[in-house]
Every structure is written in C-alpha cells, then in structure tokens.
Amino acid sequence: METVAVLDFETTGMSPRLGDRPTEIAVVLVCDGRIVDRYQSLMNPRRPIPAEITRLTGITNAMVAGAPPVATVMREAARFVGDHPLVAHNAAFDQRFWAAELETLAVEVPAPFACTMLLARRVYPQLSDHRLSTLVRALALPRPGRAHRAMVDAEMTAHLWCRLVADVGAAHGLDTVSHGRLAAAQRAPRQQFSRTLGACAAA
C-alpha cells in the first residue's frame, strides 16, 4: 500500500530567490485513504515576518523567536518524509522552498511533487476556481481549523488527495491510482487527461 507525504509551508514571502524563508512546516503521511502520521514545527527564519503575512497566517515574530532554526526543522522534516512521494496544493510554491532549504543543507531532494491544484483543475473543471478553500467547501471535505496554518492546510490537502484518488479511479475505471501516475498526468491538457492516465498505467 503506497504512502505519500503531504506537506505545507508557511513562509516570510513568495520566493526563496528573494531571500524568503519558511516559518512553519507540516507533513502528514497518508496511506490507504487516511492520515497515519503527522509532523509540524514552527521555525525561526532569522528575518522579520512582514505584517501582511502575519495577518494572513497569524504567525508573529514573537512566535518564531524561540522556535528551532530552519536547518534543524528541515532536517527533521526530511527524515520524517524519507523516500515517500510528495504532495502539495499549488505544489510549485512548496517545492521551491523544500528544494532551496534542502539544497542548502546538502540533503538529497526527493522526486517531484504531485499537485492537488493541477489535478483538481482536470478532475473538477466545473468549479469557478481551484483554491484549497474552494475545493474543501465544494467537496464537503473536513476543515480542521484556520486556513494558512501549515498543519490545517496539510490536512485539508491530504483529504483532497484522497478524494482525488478515489474520484479518478471511479471515473477512469482504474483499480490503482498511484502517485506516479497522477504526477505524470497532472500537466496533461484536460482533454488528454484520461488518455495520459492510461499511458502511465501501461508504461
């Protein structure tokens, strides 16, 4: 049974290239349609958190002042993830921070992420947008707390991942819907999504 690691970052800004750093990470392990383990930690980015980010996330400079350094948390998170394939919502954002911080530590960066936002665009094209909050509401998924905190967003993304796996399997007649199959098909044009899933299965 495949286990995937669903992660979410909160950060000081949008890009590690501009010097932004993580302030919080959460990872949940998902196996057989349920969450089986969790990791979460604040971390000290050693740079101020802008006021607009604090308004969005609720994470303040005081909250991270006594938190472990980014390097410590990222090493722990990488050990927790291990070799499990990765999932995130709007994964390009999380993948940038994951790769940048692990490269700084000379830690091997695991395989590419599967993105629940890209997949949702193909599986639920009727929705007006594919923000995590929209999908949670439209699909009546569990919402365990305030959005834009890492563990809450990671858990919501985990529930979305499980729903996507189930719905893709049912809609396309697939007995097994693996992370690799979805990650390979997620950028296919909507009209070719089903064909790409089949090609991934045959490969």
Mean pLDDT across residues: 94
CATH superfamily placement = Ribonuclease H-like superfamily/Ribonuclease H
How would you sum up the global shape?
A: globular
CATH-defined topology: Nucleotidyltransferase, domain 5
* Share of β-strand residues: 15-25%
Radius of gyration: 17 Å
Largest sheet report? 5 strands, mixed
Sketch the topology as an H/E string, one letter per element: EEEHHHEHEHHHHH
Can you give a write-up of this model?
The protein has helices at residues 51-57, 61-65, 70-81, 91-104, 116-123, 132-138, 150-172, 179-185, 193-202; strands spanning 3-11, 22-31, 34-42, 86-88, 114-115. It is of the alpha/beta class and 203 residues long. It has one domain (3-173): Ribonuclease H-like superfamily/Ribonuclease H (Nucleotidyltransferase, domain 5). It has a five-stranded mixed beta sheet with strand order 3-2-1-4-5, with helices on both faces. α5 runs parallel beside α7 (150-172). The protein is globular and about 50 Å long. The two termini are 20 Å apart.
In short:
This protein is of the alpha/beta class and 203 residues long. The protein is 46% helix and 16% strand.
Task: Label this structure with key terms.
Nucleotidyltransferase, domain 5; five-stranded mixed β-sheet; 203 residues; alpha/beta
